[in-house]
Amino acid sequence: MDLPKQFLSRCPACYRNYINIFCDMTCSPTQSQFVMTTATIPNSAGEAVLSITYALSKSFAYGMYDSCKDVQMPSANDKAISVFCGIKASECTPQKWLDYNGNTNNGKAPFPITFILQDQPWISDDNVTLIPNNHATVRCNETFDNSTQPCSCQDCQAMCVPMLPPPPPKKDFKIAGTDGYAFIMACVYIVFILFFCSYVICYSVASSRKQRYVGSNNVSNDLPETDSKSYKMKNSAVHHVSMADIGCMEKIGAQVEIAITNTFTRWGIFCAKHPYLILVAGIVIAGALSVGIIRIDVTTDPVQLWSAEKNQARQERDYFNKHFVPFFRTEQVIISRPNNNTQVEHPLPPPSAENMNFSCLFDKDFMKEVLALQNNISSLVASYNDEKVTLSDICFKPMAPDYDYCTIQSPLQYFQNDVEKLDKIVMDDSGFFLEADYLEHFRKCVQNPTSISDTTKLGMSCLAEYGGPAFPWVVLGGFDGDNYHQATAFVLTFVVNNRLNKADNEKAEAWEQVFIDYMKNYKHQNMTVSFSSERSIQDELDRESKSDVMTIAISYFVMFAYISVALGQFHSLETIFIDSKITLGLSGVAIVLCSVAASVGFFSYIGISMTLIIIEVVPFLVLAVGVDNIFILVQAFQRDQKKPGENLEEQIGRIVGTVGPSMLLSSLSESVAFFFGAMTNMPAVRTFSLYAAMAVLFDFLLQITCFIGMMALDAKRREKHLFDCCCCIKGAKSKHPADTGGFLFHIVKEYYSKFLMDKWIRPFVVLIFVGLFCASLAMTFHVDIGLEQGLSMPEDSFVLDYFNNISVYLAVGAPVYFVVPKGHDYASTNGQNLICGGLGCPQNSVIGQIYTASRLKNYTYISQPASSWIDDYFDWLTPGGSPTCCRYDADTRKFCPSTDKNDTCYPCQLNNFSKGRPSSEDFAKYLTWFLGDNPGLTCGKGGHAAYASAVELINNGTAVGATYFMTYHTTLRKSKDYIEALRGARKLADDISTALNLTKPDEKVFAYSIFYVFYEQYLTIVNDTLLNLGVCLAAIFVVTVILLGFDFYSGFLVLTTILMILVDIMGMMYLWNISLNAVSLVNLVMAVGISVEFCSHLIRAFVVSTQPTRILRAQDSLAHMGSSVLSGITLTKLGGIIVLAFSKSQLFQVFYFRMYLGIVLFGATHGLIFLPVLLSYIGPKVHKAEVNYNQYKDIENNSETSKSSSPTSDEAPIFIHEKGVPSNYDSISTCNVIHL
């Protein structure tokens, strides 16, 4: 009765009811009334019993069964009744339980016992009457004497406090049966349509009336006139702006404009005059920074990429690895036969005449092929540093040194990987009926994987070769419920030790490479195989990065080629080599590359690691910014006419003074935004933001230095009619007029801008873009969160099949460990009760709460109760048994395992074992023996196999440090499942900490699973996204306001347009199945920067334009900046983006091709269509200081004909270019400003 005591004594009522059956059978004075001997054999003492019949009342049998049916077996995460019933607990009945106990094949029954369950007297064939034993039973929630306690909730459902139902699933937000967000945005859109239509109608009426009245002292009332006649009327009037008309903020803004413009003008002249000095200085500085690349440190570890050191999951992972052992490395093979629907017919043993159909996997020949594959994998040999490495050298051996076998989870382990056992059969005496074979053995083993005997005539063990159980939900897949015989997949798992030091894993990695090579070449016509190793994902990511190098290179080559060609303006074939600007274009591209290299080198100097995403994304971003500025600068020069008396250097300086502030606005906005974006705690996003910010800054600095120098040299080359790329050859002098802006400029100015500003087109543009914004905003709430594993793999990766089969076949999720940190008092009874789940343990203990959570698995994602070392330790210490588990050698004073038959082994001397609890002294004294004891036939509670790594012993093994309690998650298939599993486990851990009254962060219980560190980011990804984008937008707003002369209104319009672009991109993400994760967040942050390029240049051109109406100013800004933005960003990027569509990487196709395409298209349409229309309606008023300056210049130009026309002090301009501020400006200043 040693095993029943070990497994059932945790529930005293169950154990007492169970042993009463055998006590009454052996010792009851009325034994003859319910026990009958059916066979005997003579011996020296008389007769020996060979078999008996035992009559039990149903009330006795069912009372015993009911008290024991829920008793747990912590080490196996199963119910103990499965051990004593011989089948799985869910199929056990009182009759089956007793029949198994009476069967000698169980290895414990001394002779066959036939149990008769009925309440009426039973009469045998020999007319012997038996009165069924009707011994009173005790329910599990009752005590049978004053010295015992009721069973715990975990072992007795009647002891559990009724559970509150789980919260109902979160319902979708609905209004009137439709999506709530869509309904709200539809209502908003309808209201906007009504308001906007009213606005347009009212303004149309006002505009028609205004045509009848012309003349005002103001520059313009900025009504949206569209009639050309109206424009002529307004333009013919003299709109005089005096100093008194200019407000204080406008004067401050003018001072900022003066400072920036004059600085850029002077700098441009200097660079144009000294191009070689500037080029040499720029190359030296950029080169010195780029040299830092030799110190580059590339981070490829996914943990370091996506989880910050201070993140909870990262700290918990580090704590687990430090105090226990890192989670095992797993090499897994999933085997299926998807195109084979045949069934294996298995006749059930007599007396049954029925057959049971097994799936095609259970064909014996097929199972032998699977075993051959398993053995071939096990025998693979790798080479590491001229040393042979086998699986045995690196695998996990839970029973070592007693059993030197690797842990291999496989359905063939039910046969101990032995072909002879697979072939073994037992026929009846006639030789006609099959009584037992491999399928019958399998059927019994999946019902009780821990059984040492399958209860069939085979009498074989179900334990694996390494000595542990092979749980069917681990080694089988693709079955419903517990119909394991209909499994559609075999799962082979080779468990390999993992080391904290990466260098110590190199042997394992070498063997894994041989394993991968073997499996890649493995072919079998009857078998479909998918596989993966611990290193597979990282290997495939590395391969993916290398395979996409060519795709990325082609993408950039297309963009570079376009830039080199598009910068030139060609007039005829005879001057094509003169008009070409290939050298200038390539120098612009080189500047982009140098800025990226300088950024990488700079951060390498200061020790900030880079990531591969920087190589993939930052050049794209900097190219967008840099090319846009290059096109604006070059095309502004091409469209400009040299003024009388102006040399080339002064012309270039004037051009730089004109467009330099716009370049500064876009570049500084983006750089500051990225620097602020680096405040995030997500390492990959933070690193990207830092590198991007510095690269954009370096790019701007090189553009206003080296590129201006190159532009000056190119202009001089062209003036001398020298060939591009070969300046030693002189060509023919051009007979064509000077550049007028080019074909695209002409199209935008003369056709597109006028078409867009048509009075019928503008309203439709607003309605379409606002409607798109409302629809996208509604869809934004439905964007998925997470990153499906398959997307990170190349399209031709073998791992994709493995990921797919995981979601289709696997029946159990990842292990989850609930860790109790160091500091808990395990030695005291109170401390033990707060942890345990057995006798005397409260329902809100650690084990109790995990058990309760497992009963709500669909809500908590906890599939089963946790294995509990402390409960098994109590059972292991419990006195009694033959022999007891805890024994010592009287001679050596060392531990005696239960298998040791030495006469000098005696039971442990426990000082006080009250109510199933050891004293503090005994708890610490014998714990090391328990953790070193292997479970066996006589003592199944040894803790070596299950708990050797679960308990951290400190103080030379005299105290307990950190411990964990392991269970499993339910099957997790999608990112959402992983996220919710993490969320549920953390909530459970918090509830446990609250029950234990643990308030300090370093004392709280926490949940750990291998995937938590990767999925933790998704718990806060929405908040992180809002914070990052919000900070970037705020930075852009501030910089825009300052550089536009404290024009808050213009800053608001830029902010609004960028926000609309972001929302539309989010809507596209929903429609195009792009989830929100760290990769897409990086792209969204980048989208903010690129959106600035689409908006800032245009709005600044609008602000400084002096056309009399908003419509004409919008046309003017669109003509001068729109064509450059279109040719600089849009067309450049589209060519490169299209190439990305041919990438083999799904990650590139989804997160780069799709998102980049959306960024460019939405940015271009908003910048070139929506923003000009928006400005034509509600753009800022004309810059009065600019008008004042134009008035001054007009009067100055006419001063030669009339001295009296010289400006008065009230007419003196506030807006002064490189000629400086007039001496009379200070005297008319009306607010405190800084005079330059």
Automatic annotation (TrEMBL):
<feature type="transmembrane region" description="Helical">
    <location>
        <begin position="276"/>
        <end position="294"/>
    </location>
</feature>
<feature type="transmembrane region" description="Helical">
    <location>
        <begin position="549"/>
        <end position="570"/>
    </location>
</feature>
<dbReference type="InterPro" id="IPR032190">
    <property type="entry name" value="NPC1_N"/>
</dbReference>
<keyword id="KW-0153">Cholesterol metabolism</keyword>
<dbReference type="GO" id="GO:0005886">
    <property type="term" value="C:plasma membrane"/>
</dbReference>
<dbReference type="GO" id="GO:0030301">
    <property type="term" value="P:cholesterol transport"/>
</dbReference>
<feature type="transmembrane region" description="Helical">
    <location>
        <begin position="1052"/>
        <end position="1072"/>
    </location>
</feature>
<dbReference type="Pfam" id="PF22314">
    <property type="entry name" value="NPC1_MLD"/>
</dbReference>
<dbReference type="GO" id="GO:0008203">
    <property type="term" value="P:cholesterol metabolic process"/>
</dbReference>
<dbReference type="InterPro" id="IPR000731">
    <property type="entry name" value="SSD"/>
</dbReference>
<feature type="transmembrane region" description="Helical">
    <location>
        <begin position="655"/>
        <end position="676"/>
    </location>
</feature>
<dbReference type="GO" id="GO:0012505">
    <property type="term" value="C:endomembrane system"/>
</dbReference>
<dbReference type="InterPro" id="IPR004765">
    <property type="entry name" value="NPC1-like"/>
</dbReference>
<dbReference type="Pfam" id="PF12349">
    <property type="entry name" value="Sterol-sensing"/>
</dbReference>
<dbReference type="GO" id="GO:0015485">
    <property type="term" value="F:cholesterol binding"/>
</dbReference>
<feature type="transmembrane region" description="Helical">
    <location>
        <begin position="180"/>
        <end position="202"/>
    </location>
</feature>
<feature type="transmembrane region" description="Helical">
    <location>
        <begin position="1155"/>
        <end position="1178"/>
    </location>
</feature>
<feature type="transmembrane region" description="Helical">
    <location>
        <begin position="612"/>
        <end position="634"/>
    </location>
</feature>
<comment type="similarity">
    <text>Belongs to the patched family.</text>
</comment>
<keyword id="KW-0812">Transmembrane</keyword>
<keyword id="KW-0732">Signal</keyword>
<dbReference type="GO" id="GO:0030299">
    <property type="term" value="P:intestinal cholesterol absorption"/>
</dbReference>
<dbReference type="GO" id="GO:0042632">
    <property type="term" value="P:cholesterol homeostasis"/>
</dbReference>
<dbReference type="InterPro" id="IPR053958">
    <property type="entry name" value="HMGCR/SNAP/NPC1-like_SSD"/>
</dbReference>
<keyword id="KW-0325">Glycoprotein</keyword>
<feature type="transmembrane region" description="Helical">
    <location>
        <begin position="802"/>
        <end position="820"/>
    </location>
</feature>
<keyword id="KW-0753">Steroid metabolism</keyword>
<keyword id="KW-1015">Disulfide bond</keyword>
<keyword id="KW-0443">Lipid metabolism</keyword>
<feature type="domain" description="SSD">
    <location>
        <begin position="548"/>
        <end position="713"/>
    </location>
</feature>
<feature type="transmembrane region" description="Helical">
    <location>
        <begin position="1026"/>
        <end position="1046"/>
    </location>
</feature>
<dbReference type="GO" id="GO:0005319">
    <property type="term" value="F:lipid transporter activity"/>
</dbReference>
<keyword id="KW-1133">Transmembrane helix</keyword>
<keyword id="KW-0813">Transport</keyword>
<feature type="transmembrane region" description="Helical">
    <location>
        <begin position="688"/>
        <end position="713"/>
    </location>
</feature>
<dbReference type="Pfam" id="PF16414">
    <property type="entry name" value="NPC1_N"/>
</dbReference>
<keyword id="KW-0445">Lipid transport</keyword>
<keyword id="KW-0472">Membrane</keyword>
<feature type="transmembrane region" description="Helical">
    <location>
        <begin position="1084"/>
        <end position="1103"/>
    </location>
</feature>
<feature type="transmembrane region" description="Helical">
    <location>
        <begin position="764"/>
        <end position="782"/>
    </location>
</feature>
<dbReference type="InterPro" id="IPR053956">
    <property type="entry name" value="NPC1_MLD"/>
</dbReference>
<keyword id="KW-1207">Sterol metabolism</keyword>
